[in-house]
Amino acid sequence: RRKVDSEGRRFQDRWKVEYFFTEIENHCVCLICQETVAVYKEFNVKRHYQSRHSTYDKLTGHDRSEKLKQLEAVLIECVMKMVENICPEKKQEFANICLARNTVARRIEEISSDIKRQLTSKGVDFDFFSIACDESTDLSDTAQLLIFMRGVDDEMNVTEELLDLQSLTDQTRGKDLFVSVSSAIDDMKLPWNKVTGIITDGAPAMVGERSGLSTLICNKVIEEGGKAIKLHCIIHQQVLCAKHLKYDHVMKPVLKTINFIRSKALCHRQFKQFLLDIQAEYEDVLYHNDVRWLSRGSALQRFYSLRKEIGEFLETKGQPMRELSDPIWLADLGFLVDITKHLNVLNTSLQGKDAAVNQLYSHLKAFGTKLQLFIRQLSQTQPNTIHFSALQEIMNSFPQDNISAQTSRYAADIASLAGEFKRRFQDFAAIEKEISLFSSPFSVDPDDAPDQLQLELIELHCDSELRSRHQQLSLVNFYRQLDKRAGFKKMLSLFGSTYMCEKTFSAMNFNKNRVRTRLSDSHLRDILRIKT
């Protein structure tokens, strides 16, 4: 015979209005008499209601809903009175508890639907918009495609929101992704000829020349009479450039030592206690995770700061690290710590919501100029290491060793890194003139501007009042003063990175974790829409 517990019965939300029942701690409770029905079965609930509270049948429609609210309020008041007497310090926690687990799900669905309705109404007013796409796999092995939209209306107001989360249960080829993106755009009734660009993480399915998502999107826009550009996320490209400086002869010993300390519980406890006993600056070393953008720099910085303590601890374990006594290796470590620190500062500046493409590109250009400064300073006869504090510390610690002779090698490595930056960011370099025109219209020669903007740009240069406003107002507020601003709205609508996608994937992994793998795709979409 089948057991009741195996039938998977659940409380139905409609029982609240129909029979004045609610769910409290997995029990079906009558709101009128507070009695409990043993089994989640409609027959039992209905029988209880008809046999004891049939007088409430005269209440219908709005009156019945109001009565339900009154009964729930009475129950909550009784619970709060009890809490005040038993544990008054937790009164606020109990006040935030919902009566039924389905209530939370229903409210999330309603909020998500309302956000979507608002976005749909805003989308009607968009003059231009671009999309950012990224794909990842959740814990249930479902491919989730995030689609963000950045739209600009006639008043230069920017809206950056989650357009949709598309779940793919089969292949994730470019054409499969294109079908999902097309469905999301068509569902929101957005015109394709207003798409100005698409930015992705650079995966083959995203950027393939023939059948990649970006190519298919741009072809669709052209068919509809528009023009869109393809961009590779500026943060992803920066991370790839950072990996150009491998320095394996430094990284491998460092990671081996970190893993030796942290991989065994006893060794790890002893190391932390050792640092505590000697009152070290930090209390532990950091693991390196190649996926996390800032992990390499953080792990290296912590290792460098604790290098003396690590050397002493390894000696007590009979596992001396010979590299820590090699001045040249220590100089290489110091240089790598410093350059990754500069790269991490750049990466952090590129993160954030609502960042315009011109702002991100200006950070990139500034870093390129910094690299040229580093090259010149390290190439001098008397190297200037003012911007390389760790390297300078090592050089001061070993004055008898000719470490300064290594600086020419470091300058060559930085030159190679600068070349990698120049090679990778060709997609942004291709629109550099448009970016400059948008961010600094008064410094652009009309001859270098697009033909349709040359006359307008000349008038702009000759208007002293507008020049004064450009200096006083923010860029967006300045363009709101202009009558003709279509070209500027296109540039403002472009995404510069897929930062919002990466941030939302973190939220997805937090919500759909190993104990919540049964979270449905639709509920996951609703949660992420509210989260963003």
TrEMBL record:
PANTHER family, A to Z: EPM2A-INTERACTING PROTEIN 1, GENERAL TRANSCRIPTION FACTOR II-I REPEAT DOMAIN-CONTAINING PROTEIN 2-LIKE-RELATED
Pfam families: zf-C2H2_12
Signal sequence coordinates: none
Organism of provenance: Pelodiscus sinensis
Protein name per Swiss-Prot or TrEMBL: SPIN-DOC-like zinc-finger domain-containing protein
Domain SPIN-DOC-like zinc-finger: 12-70
